[in-house]
């Protein structure tokens, strides 16, 4: 049964006859569903109202979106509307233990979100890896005054797909038996969590394709046989029309492209999403790396052959320019974050920013911010392992994200689009002047890919008081601790932010405190705060640990396994060697 969203008119006080806004209500029971989306494996997934895939959300600028959630799965869960600013509405942002206690099984929570922006977004679970198990859907916000003309639109949500549940894979990933931190490799990839999607095209029409990467791990390269793509939107920001043959899209990023239909119906054409093998430690023979949807002009026409495409270089920030210009300002404060993976003193390979692996506090950080009075400006109250950064209201902040790892990482900041102002090689050490792309009108987006052994500088104005999570959007890396907490303008939260009683009821039901500092205490007494693993004493390097691990293992398992060991060591160390 598909439950249609309920649209109701909300009357605006005031004189404007033209502007009206609707309250759009979705009733979403979060449920388990048994299904076989890739045709290879029946499994339990997380869906909505007994349906899979979850339906897309479709609203218009200035609407109010209401999602009545009933948690009917056996674990606490939350929803996060990715890319929404949630100005004055931080309590509806959704990341578990950052802005809310998760919704206990059997309980309800209503997400009420005034729609203050437009473009292509997505909505997904933000507790544990619920989105990897299917709890993700496109979230489209229409602008009645679109910048570009088009006749029709389609949304393509690309995602990787696993056969085991996230919890099972996470146990294998964050394990002493995986010292190199090799991520679980997906079994397949899907468009809109289905196989064989089709998009009907008519000659003469212009189509807007909204392309969303809802993956846990994989990066895709997009191209369409026989058609050019003109990029017009990046993460909700309209950009100057730019024609491309192919472009890469990292986890959580979105692009809209305009595609002009051909003049004849004599062929049908494939839309390609090719997974980038660079992300995977091993590529199993059985994995279908390249997936396709089909543009249908005429069901009886033959398929045009696949064109060979050179992925080439694609530099989003150098290529694309926002339609609504916004100059950058000199930064009042600069934060430097260095991402790396290290075997910690629990002998598990964890992700760190500045050698700290994120561990959620006992009290969701937003509740600490609103309950600590003037101490809320002191980062100590948020706990060591939530890794907080307190920003002053309306200051301009530059964050340099250094990627000191062999893999590429897409970093996402909640509550903002930031300016991508610069990019450099290696770890920025502050000694040389930074080379900026463009301070006149830099690209703005909410998820930026930082390639291996490079750094990216982002800037934004701290004009959205609230607690905003900053993290890698590869779900495995978030679970490994690649996150930090931005506490924006706590001194300005009073009078702007509220937290409803339902939040506190959920904490109580889960046996969690809902006020006080990160440990649930008063003042600066952090006794009993959640603590993470720490770095091992200096002389142990990750590479050393990996080698030691296999040496010990081979001694334990015996000589009979020498060949197997040698193969595996090469495989595992291959990743380290790229450092
Ligand atoms: C949305 O609301 C803003 C602020 O009230 C108003 O200026 C704008 O015209 C509205 N837009 C639409 C499409 O209703
Ligand atoms: C959600 O589940 C409740 C039972 O808890 C049921 O009454 C209701 O009809 C369901 N709603 C939808 C939209 O499926
Ligand atoms: C989205 O909503 C708009 C406005 O209500 C409607 O015209 C359109 O058909 C909807 N699109 C989808 C895919 O449901
Ligand atoms: C939760 O929502 C469902 C469906 O809307 C309703 O039947 C149920 O009474 C609600 N439960 C609580 C505890 O509010
Ligand atoms: C989505 O992003 C991931 C991680 O960045 C990437 O590996 C995958 O190929 C992307 N998918 C698409 C369709 O671009
Ligand atoms: C379609 O045909 C018209 C008129 O012949 C031509 O101007 C136009 O470039 C063609 N468009 C495409 C996409 O081939
Ligand atoms: C996938 O497509 C790329 C080009 O985009 C090609 O180089 C590669 O060989 C293809 N892989 C498979 C397994 O077909
Ligand atoms: C915090 O507020 C208290 C009482 O409201 C006041 O006594 C104290 O001086 C303030 N502390 C700081 C650091 O402003
Ligand atoms: C920066 O962007 C502006 C606006 O798009 C453009 O006019 C200018 O040439 C760019 N400057 C540089 C140095 O790229
Ligand atoms: Cu990552």
Automatic annotation (TrEMBL):
<dbReference type="Pfam" id="PF07731">
    <property type="entry name" value="Cu-oxidase_2"/>
</dbReference>
<dbReference type="InterPro" id="IPR008972">
    <property type="entry name" value="Cupredoxin"/>
</dbReference>
<keyword id="KW-0732">Signal</keyword>
<dbReference type="GO" id="GO:0004322">
    <property type="term" value="F:ferroxidase activity"/>
</dbReference>
<dbReference type="GO" id="GO:0010106">
    <property type="term" value="P:cellular response to iron ion starvation"/>
</dbReference>
<comment type="similarity">
    <text>Belongs to the multicopper oxidase family.</text>
</comment>
<dbReference type="InterPro" id="IPR011707">
    <property type="entry name" value="Cu-oxidase-like_N"/>
</dbReference>
<feature type="transmembrane region" description="Helical">
    <location>
        <begin position="545"/>
        <end position="566"/>
    </location>
</feature>
<dbReference type="Pfam" id="PF07732">
    <property type="entry name" value="Cu-oxidase_3"/>
</dbReference>
<keyword id="KW-0472">Membrane</keyword>
<dbReference type="GO" id="GO:0033215">
    <property type="term" value="P:reductive iron assimilation"/>
</dbReference>
<keyword id="KW-1133">Transmembrane helix</keyword>
<dbReference type="GO" id="GO:0005507">
    <property type="term" value="F:copper ion binding"/>
</dbReference>
<dbReference type="GO" id="GO:0033573">
    <property type="term" value="C:high-affinity iron permease complex"/>
</dbReference>
<keyword id="KW-0186">Copper</keyword>
<dbReference type="InterPro" id="IPR045087">
    <property type="entry name" value="Cu-oxidase_fam"/>
</dbReference>
<dbReference type="InterPro" id="IPR001117">
    <property type="entry name" value="Cu-oxidase_2nd"/>
</dbReference>
<feature type="domain" description="Plastocyanin-like">
    <location>
        <begin position="152"/>
        <end position="278"/>
    </location>
</feature>
<dbReference type="InterPro" id="IPR033138">
    <property type="entry name" value="Cu_oxidase_CS"/>
</dbReference>
<dbReference type="InterPro" id="IPR002355">
    <property type="entry name" value="Cu_oxidase_Cu_BS"/>
</dbReference>
<protein>
    <recommendedName>
        <fullName>Laccase</fullName>
    </recommendedName>
</protein>
<keyword id="KW-0812">Transmembrane</keyword>
<dbReference type="Pfam" id="PF00394">
    <property type="entry name" value="Cu-oxidase"/>
</dbReference>
<dbReference type="InterPro" id="IPR011706">
    <property type="entry name" value="Cu-oxidase_C"/>
</dbReference>
<feature type="domain" description="Plastocyanin-like">
    <location>
        <begin position="30"/>
        <end position="145"/>
    </location>
</feature>
<feature type="signal peptide">
    <location>
        <begin position="1"/>
        <end position="21"/>
    </location>
</feature>
<feature type="domain" description="Plastocyanin-like">
    <location>
        <begin position="358"/>
        <end position="491"/>
    </location>
</feature>
<dbReference type="InterPro" id="IPR044130">
    <property type="entry name" value="CuRO_2_Fet3-like"/>
</dbReference>
<keyword id="KW-0560">Oxidoreductase</keyword>
<keyword id="KW-0479">Metal-binding</keyword>
